[in-house]
Amino acid sequence: MTTNFNQRVYEVVRQIPKGKVATYGQVARAIGAPRSARQVGWALHSNPAFGEIPCHRVIFKDGSLTDGFAFGGRDVQKALLENDGVEVSQDYKVDLNKFGWLE
User: Fold this and answer.
1) What backbone torsions phi and psi does residue 21 show, to the nearest 5 degrees?
2) Is the per-residue pLDDT at 62 higher than 90?
3) Over 70: is that where the pLDDT of 69 sits?
4) Which of 16, 65, 69, 97 is deepest in the core (most CB within 10 A)?
5) Euclidean distance between CA atoms 3 and 85, whole angstroms
C-alpha cells in the first residue's frame, strides 16, 4: 500500500478518543477502502509516531486484541487500553457495544 494509504489510516486513528476503540475494518471503511482491514493492520504495524498515533486503540472485529501488537504484545496493548479507561477481559477482549467508537 502507498504512503498516502498509511497517512489516511493515521489520520483516522488519531481521531479515536481516549476510552474508545475501533476495528481494523472500521478504520478501512472510514478511509474509503472497506476491503483493506489487513492493510490497515500493516500500516499500524509501521506506525511512525507511537504515542501520537494511538494504534493500540484498533482491535479485531470480535473485540479481541492482537497477539502480535507491534509495540510489545497484547499485554502491553491491554495495559494501554486500560490506562485509557477501556475495560479488557481476562481473555483479551473489549466490549465493542460499550467502548466502540465507529459503527
Assistant:
1) -135, 160
2) yes
3) no
4) 65
5) 31
Measured at the alpha carbon of residue 53, what is the angle toward residues 41 and 16, in degrees to the nearest 5? 85
pLDDT number for residue 72: 80
Interior CA angle at 12 toward 9 and 27, to 5°? 65
Please state, in angstroms and as integers, the Cα–Cα distance from residue 83 to each residue in 74, 75, 96, following that order.
Answer: 14, 12, 17
101 lies in some domain: no
Q: Which of 40, 55, 80, 94 is catalytic?
A: 55
CATH number, residue 16: 1.10.10.10
Beta bridge partners of 21: 100
Q: Is 55 a catalytic residue?
A: yes
Give residue for cell 485509557.
84
